[in-house]
Amino acid sequence: MTPVEIDSSLAKTGNQVSAKEESIRRLRLRAENVSSDSSASAAQKVKFAAAIADLEAALVPLVERIELFDAEFARRGGWTRYYVVGHLHTSLRCSSFRASTRVGWLPEYSGRDESEMIELAGNLVCTLCVPGAPTEPKRPSIPVLAEAWDKAHNQVVCPGSGQPMNRDLPFRAGYVYGNWATCPECDGRVGFTSISLLRKHKPASY
């Protein structure tokens, strides 16, 4: 099996394990909330226990499958793996991650050279993971990164954003809340900064 095949299967199996573990957790919570003062409640607890046992049994071959994949990864000396958290990362131990960081894995790119990934991801390659990665903006070819790029770069911004507030146009100022100024470009009501610059906004007609 290729690195892509192994990691894709590993990711799929890992998701199956997570789903079953979550089901077990929920069943245990339901079982704990069942009253034990009636024969019907006792029967319900037995039913929950049986369902939990079935799920735990189903976990065994899945965990064994994961162990086999991990062993093969180690036997081959490992290969490159890539993860997405805003940028493309080569390690789950990137110093930019926090304990709460949710990481997306891209097993379909496992085994590829970093140089190839730089070509695909451009400046969205993490420079902490890959020192020397480019910083010049470039639309990435990797779908999940390209989608985020398009969302960030296709935003329509009124050219009046950042312009000084024009006090010859209607405005409301001096209040704790609800201050606004009229944008000379789109004629919309927008907020302004402490130094009277119009905040970034879309055209009023957009």
Describe this structure in words.
Helices cover 42% and strands 7% of the residues. The chain is mostly helical and 206 residues long. The strands form two sheets. A three-stranded antiparallel β-sheet has the order 2-1-3, with no helix packed on it. The chain has a three-stranded antiparallel β-sheet with strand order 4-5-6, with no helix packed on it. β1 and β2 form a beta hairpin. The chain is flat, with a radius of gyration of 27 Å. The chain starts with a helix and ends in a 16-residue tail after the last strand.
Give a short summary of the structure.
42% of the residues lie in helices and 7% in strands.
Which sequence of SSEs, written as H and E, runs from N to C?
HHEEEHHEEE
Q: What best-fitting shape do the alpha-carbon axes yield?
A: flat
- Our measurement of the CA-to-CA distance between the termini, rounded to an integer number of angstroms, reads 51 Å
Question: Mind summarizing the main beta sheet?
Answer: 3 strands, antiparallel
Overall pLDDT metric: 89
Strand content: 5-15%
**Global Rg:** 27 Å
Helix content: 40-55%
Poorly predicted runs are: none
* Major sheet: arrangement of strands: 2-1-3
Total beta-strand segments? 6
Structural class: mainly alpha
Quaternary organization: single chain
- How many distinct helices? 4
